[in-house]
Amino acid sequence: MQTLRSSSASPFGRKIKLALYVLGFADKVNVEVAKTLDPNDTLRQQNPLGKIPCLILEDGNVLYDSRVITEYLDYMAGGEKLIPAGAERFDILTKQALADGICDAAIQIVYEGRMRPEEKKHQDWVDYQQAKVDRALTAFENNLLPQVQHNSPDAAQIALACALGYLDLRFAGEWRKSYPKLVAWLDDFASSVPAYDKTKPRARSIRAAMIILRTSPTSPYGRKARIAAAVLGLEDQIKVDWADTRASEGSLYEQNPLAKVPTLLLENGESVYDSRVALELLDALAGGGKIIPTGEARISALTKQAMADGITDAAIQAQIETRNHPEEHWNTVWIERQQGKVNRTLKAFNDQPLPTPAQTNGIPDCAQIALACSLGYLDLRANGDWRRENPELICWHDAFVEQVPAYNETLAPEMLEGS
């Protein structure tokens, strides 16, 4: 199977996702989140530019950028589906380039705002890029592209729709105030091409760039949120702030009356907790349906997440008893009760293993993330004793570690020292 490296917010990646749906290839390509700012991501080996999207073919060859991938997909579909032949070809490619140019300039504005401290921002550069956006939008407003017929957009229409979607995402749809014909065009596109909504990136209502994650290096629940942020492509928009959960006072008590981690601090001052709610929020920010399925599959995934969290709950209770009391004061009945919960749930997962991320859509769901973090916690605090009687779980865990790089990236310091 081919693999598309992209991110949920990339307008260029969205172009390819839309093309895959329109051409009927969506179920034949695995979409894998790429972390463009992470020097350890394999993206830089796959594309020396470290840019997305890139398409990894079954023979190992890699295609980039979005225009080349669009040409390739059109070719694989028999040709002239997205890009016509003859003189019309160059008109479509030129308009695609104009739409892509809107994205290029908008991304430069976003990077200027994100990557530079306020005192070093170059307003002349921002204005220069904004002028490009405005001129291109005016050109499209004055010479509208044809409306899409029967879910069959061409490459220029796809590129323009994705460019306008990106402006909605990053600039709160400010463009809509000045370009009424383009607004109507995009509305028609969205109703004619169902995949436009399916590929919609995360909402702008909560600005992920301003989210702070309070957690601790060893918390399995905080690790769930960190892995979720990584696989959803939100890592560079969330700041991790270590919290001392053993302190009897401090800011964590003000942010969460339970003084537990993880706690997410939103830009509007609100706090979100616990780990299950945090994963719901992160999934929503990434567009929804990524790590928490929709429909009937949702309840099953949430139930299995609760099972995995239950392993962690019981293991922590047993740890609290043995770490906080001298041995002669241990409540062995209580410890055995907690261990029984752990053993029964491990057996359930061993007898009916979850699918690996590669067996689903390449992105682990909330249950898979929770189970991996539970097993990691048992490795950390219970000497990996779970491995003695759960061979199927060992295989599943090994596959998860291999398929989800964020697992090793979020190892507790003690585990790193012992590796």
Structure, explained:
- By secondary structure, the chain is α/β, with parallel strands linked by helices.
- The chain folds into three domains: 1-201, Glutaredoxin, CATH 3.40.30; 208-285, Glutaredoxin (3-Layer(aba) Sandwich), CATH 3.40.30; 296-417, Glutathione S-transferase Yfyf (Class Pi), Chain A, domain 2.
- The chain has 17 helices and eight strands.
- The strands form two sheets. The chain has a four-stranded mixed β-sheet with strand order 2-1-3-4. A four-stranded mixed β-sheet has the order 6-5-7-8.
- Helix 1 (11-23) links the parallel strand 1 and strand 2.
- Helix 1 (11-23) crosses helix 6 (155-171).
- The two termini are 33 Å apart.
Strand content: 5-15%
What kind of sheet is the major sheet? 4 strands, mixed
Helix content: 40-55%
CATH architecture of the largest domain: 3-Layer(aba) Sandwich
Class by helix and strand content? alpha/beta
What is the typical, i.e. mean, pLDDT?
A: 90
Number of helices: 17
Text of the CATH class of the largest domain: Alpha Beta
Number of strands: 8
Question: Short description, anyone?
Answer:
This protein is an alpha/beta fold.
SSE order and pairing:
Layout: E1 2-6, H1 11-23, E2 29-33, H2 43-46, E3 54-56, E4 62-63, H3 66-76, H4 87-115, H5 123-142, H6 155-171, H7 180-192, H8 195-198, E5 211-215, H9 220-231, E6 238-242, H10 251-255, E7 263-265, E8 271-272, H11 275-285, H12 296-324, H13 332-351, H14 366-381, H15 391-403, H16 406-409, H17 413-417
Parallel strand pairs: 1-2, 5-6
Antiparallel strand pairs: 1-3, 3-4, 5-7, 7-8
